[in-house]
Amino acid sequence: MSPAPERSVDADVVRRELLDPDAGSDPYILTGVHIRGALALDGAEIRRLVRFEECRFDGPMTLEGANTLAFSVTDCELPGFVAPTAQIGGRLDLRGSTITGGPRGAVNVTLTHIAGGLILDRARLVATEGIALHAGGLVMQGGVFCKNGFVAHGQVLFPGAELPGGLWMDGARITVPDPAEIAFNGDALRASTVRLHQGFRAEGRVRLRGARIDDLLSFHEAELSGVGTSLMAVGAQVEALDLRFARQPAGGVNLSNARATRIQDRSATWRAPLGLDGLLYDWMEMSAATQREDTANRLAWLRLQSAFTPQPYEQLAAYYRRLGHEDEARRVLLVRERRRRNTQRPLGRVWGWLLEATVGYGYRPWIAGVWLVVLTLLGSVVFHTHTPLPNKPGEGAPFNPVAYTLDLLIPVGGLGQREGWHWAEAGVQGLAYVMIALGWVLTTTVLAGVTRALSRA
What we know:
Blueprint: E1 7-10, H1 11-18, E2 28-31, E3 33-36, E4 39-40, E5 50-53, E6 56-57, E7 61-62, E8 67-68, E9 71-74, E10 77-78, E11 81-82, E12 87-88, E13 92-93, E14 98-101, E15 107-108, E16 113-114, E17 118-119, E18 124-134, E19 139-140, E20 144-145, E21 151-157, E22 162-163, E23 167-168, E24 173-175, E25 182-185, E26 190-191, E27 194-195, E28 201-203, E29 205-207, E30 212-218, E31 223-224, E32 229-232, E33 237-243, E34 252-254, E35 259-265, E36 274-275, E37 280-284, H2 291-303, H3 311-322, H4 326-341, H5 346-359, H6 366-384, E38 389-390, H7 401-409, E39 421-422, H8 426-456
Parallel strand pairs: 1-3, 2-5, 3-6, 4-7, 5-9, 7-11, 8-12, 9-13, 10-14, 11-15, 12-16, 13-17, 14-18, 15-18, 16-19, 17-20, 18-21, 20-23, 21-24, 21-25, 22-26, 23-27, 24-28, 25-29, 26-30, 27-30, 28-31, 29-32, 30-33, 32-34, 33-35, 34-36, 35-37
Antiparallel strand pairs: 38-39
Helix pairs in contact: 2-4, 3-4, 5-8, 6-7, 6-8
Transmembrane segments: 366-383, 431-454
Keywords: Membrane, Transmembrane, Transmembrane helix
Organism: Streptomyces kunmingensis
C-alpha cells in the first residue's frame, strides 16, 4: 500500500464531478486521494468509465441499483463496497484493495449484473460481522478472479450465482472464526469452471450443494480445514471433479447424489466419513499401479462411508464392467454382500455366512463345485468300505459308492442308487442322511446365490 495520500476531497464533491453531465464520456480518474465521507452512488446513471487508484475512503462506497460502465477501485482502502442489483456494463476491478464491511458484507454484489469480469486479485476483504464477499445471485458475462494472494476474513458466498466465465481462486485463503462455519457457499452455483485449487485454503467448511459446473471443479492441492463436513457437494453436477487435495481434509467429504463424468483423487487424502451414496461417475483415475491394487484402494475408499449403502458398490462394479474387468466387478459385489451381512440380524448373518461359504453369494459359483467334489470323495470312501443292504434283493443295479453318494447329494432326479440300498450300521446310515441334508443346503444356496447375483449385479 502506498503512503497516506496528500490530497483530500469530500465524497459529495467526488459524486458531483463523477455525475457531471457536461463531462461527457471522459473517464473519471482519481489517484492517491483521501476521500472524506461515504460515496453514495445508489441508483446513479454513470455514463463514463470510473477509476480510483491508491485512494483512501473514510466511508463505504455504495452503488445499489446503479447503472454504470466499467468501474475500478484498485489498491484502495475503504470500509465497504456495496453494489447489490447494480448493472455494470464492463468489468468491476477491485484488485489489491483492502475492504472492510459490516452485516451486508465487505463486498456486496448480490443480484448484480456485470458484463465483464469481477477482479479481486490481491484483494483483502475483512468482515466485521460475518460476510466478506456476498455474491448471491450474481450474474456475470465474464469470470470471477480471486487469485494472487486474495484473502477473505469472513464468508465468501456465491449461492445461485451464474458465472459463465468461471470462478478462479488459485491460492486464495478464506478464514472464519469457527471452523464449523461455512467459509465458502456455492449452493446452486452455475459456472463453466470452479478452481478452488493450487494453494487454496478454506479454514471453514466448503459447500456446493446442487452446483452445476460445465467443466472442471478442482480442489487440486487445496487445503480444507472445516470440521464436521469439510466439503459438501450433495447433488452437484460437474464434468470433471479433481479431489487431489494437498492433505487430508479436517472433516468429511459428502458427494451424495453428485454426478461427475470424470473423477481424480488421491487415496492418501481420503478421510472418514465419506458420503458416496448416489454418486455417479463414468471414469476414475486409477489409484494404484495395478488393477487389483486399484480395486483394493477403491474398496478401502467405500469403507470410509459413515453407514453401509449398496449403491456405491454397485456403481463401482458397473464401472469395472464397462472397462471389461469382470473379475474386479464380482470382487466388489462380493464385498458389498459382506458389508450388508454385517448390518443384518443374527439369522440373516448366519444365512449370509452360508451363502458365502457355499457359492460366494453367487459371485464365486465354483465354490459349490469344490464342495460337491469334497463331499463326493468323502461319501465314496466311506460307502466303499462298508457293505450296504439291498431294499429289494435281486432287483436294481449293483451298488456303486460314487453314484450312490451323488444320488444323495443331488435332490432333483436320481441315479437309481438311493432308493435301492440301506445300511445296517447306524453311523453309516446317519452319514447318508447328512449327505441328503447337505445336498439340499448346497442346492438351496446355489439357487439363492445365483438369483441374488442376477438380480443385484
